[in-house]
């Protein structure tokens, strides 16, 4: 898995700014086939912290482009960047997604066939974005931090949730209500969670709790548990776990 985090990914077809901040840009990768192309909006993880950027997610985006999907790998302000954290990070991603309307014609993007996908903290942000963007065909959370209150209780990554939201639930309750995808209704959004059973960075417990809450609410959610997989195998196209990601993308963009 180390290669995914350290090796440079294949270059993007275009790096395009969507706003004024240095972190307001996306890497666009396009299939070789003629468009219009379905779109996978990707949000990278790193526990919402500035020291992790979008580069490692370029490998999965390149693999999906090879499979015939255009990918829009978004960068955004994170904890440690001015304006990063909640709600700035989410506002960036909203703008980055909506910016696709400005470039769709130029790059032959089919925005009627668009989904959002994210890994780890990016999985959390993908779920929240899907709750606010009903035009999306679906959302895929890969080892996502899908239950913020439980993640805070577990103090994942030295209380990354508290850093991101600005404190514990008892002091910033509004932020938890706004940012925890468990609490955001998505009655028609197709939700797919993929999580490794041996994930020791974001425990699969969070995905199971999210699934159970959403099923109780009558929402269309499905959890795929990948036996023995750990945290980063889901974003490495060279692993056995990767086929689950490809299948989910194809299902939602079929």
Description:
- This protein has one domain: 3-Layer(aba) Sandwich (Rossmann fold), CATH 3.40.50.1820.
- β7, α9 (204-216) and β8 (221-226) form a beta-alpha-beta unit.
- The chain contains ten helices and eight strands.
- It has helices spanning 2-6, 58-66, 88-98, 100-107, 121-132, 148-154, 156-165, 173-179, 204-216, 242-253; strands at 14-17, 25-29, 37-43, 70-74, 109-119, 139-142, 191-196, 221-226.
- An eight-stranded mixed sheet has the order 1-2-4-3-5-6-7-8, with helices on both faces.
- The mean pLDDT is 97.
- The protein is α/β, with parallel strands linked by helices and 254 residues long.
CATH topology heading: Rossmann fold
**Which CATH architecture is right?**
3-Layer(aba) Sandwich
CATH class: Alpha Beta
Order of helices and strands: HEEEHEHHEHEHHHEHEH
Largest sheet: 8 strands, mixed
Topology readout:
Elements: H1 2-6, E1 14-17, E2 25-29, E3 37-43, H2 58-66, E4 70-74, H3 88-98, H4 100-107, E5 109-119, H5 121-132, E6 139-142, H6 148-154, H7 156-165, H8 173-179, E7 191-196, H9 204-216, E8 221-226, H10 242-253
Helix pairs in contact: 6-7
